[in-house]
Design goal:
Length: about 260
């Protein structure tokens, strides 16, 4: 379990660094050069007195530092959720395996628990760390020691409840990122409004270019941050739903594959 936590932590650190490098490279080579060219062309036409229509280009909307930070966090969150989704897929594969070969109508007595658990014990170390193998082994060991079916059922419920809480807590970082992205957008809003107010004297003199550009920073940063946040929260809820279904299906698997076969005499 410690190895899994360490590998997951290293994956998160590596994915953050990779997202930072990729997004910043795209901004330096593509987004900001194109945005600056569009703004320079508009400014040149304005100074020349030529009629023009202000272009609301996608490059201009996402060109600022706040939007860049939002995209970095979005990619990082998606990478973390991709890792969680892959783990869920692996757990789902175990649900499709017949880990306990118990013929229909067979009665399992406490003395048979160790014999029944041998196919699970024969699994690879990686597979035995899965949810279903862990739950079944705990249930069989509990049945062997207590010889009580209700204790077995309680043990299964306890393990699955703890797993549900664990899966939910592992999404705390993604939830924090989904919360932080709108906050970064609001920082851009405050920065843009502050810059606009600092140039209010120019607007009074008739030069509103600086004010409109600063207000554009304010509105664009909030717009992009909210759109990304909506997208991320949708993915988070879908992942959480998949995790809850895994726990419920695991409970049904244990009921159908093990508990209904248990007998105490």
């Amino acid at each position: 379990m410690q190895t899994k936590v360490s590998s997951e932590f290293m994956y998160q650190i590596f994915s953050l660094i990779l997202a930072l490098i990729v997004v910043h490279t795209v901004y330096l080579t593509l987004i900001r050069p194109n945005a600056n060219n569009l703004l320079e062309n508009q400014l040149a036409k304005e100074e020349a007195g030529e009629p023009y229509v202000a272009v609301r280009s996608f490059y201009i909307v996402i060109k600022d530092f706040e939007q860049e930070a939002c995209f970095i966090l979005m990619i990082w969150a998606c990478a973390i959720m991709g890792y969680k989704a892959r783990c869920l897929i692996d757990e789902r594969k175990l649900l499709n395996h017949q880990l306990l070969t118990i013929p229909e109508g067979t009665r399992i007595l406490p003395k048979d628990a160790r014999q029944i658990s041998r196919p699970i014990q024969a699994l690879s170390s990686a597979q035995k760390k899965g949810l279903i193998p862990r739950v079944l082994l705990i249930a069989l060991h509990r049945f062997d020691s207590t010889k009580n079916i209700q204790d077995v059922s309680n043990a299964i419920s306890e393990v699955l409840d703890k797993e549900s809480d664990k899966l939910d807590s592992e999404l705390s970082m993604v939830r924090y990122i989904a919360w932080a992205i709108p906050s970064i957008g609001f920082i851009g809003t405050v920065r843009g409004i502050g810059e606009a107010l600092s140039q209010a004297h120019k607007a009074v003199q008739g030069d509103i270019a600086g004010v409109t550009a600063s207000l554009g920073v304010a509105f664009n940063s909030t717009f992009i941050a909210l759109v990304i946040s909506i997208f991320l929260m949708f993915i988070v809820h879908q992942l959480q739903l998949a995790q809850e279904r895994l726990v419920l299906d695991s409970h049904d698997y244990c009921d159908n594959s093990l508990i209904r076969h248990l007998k105490t005499d």
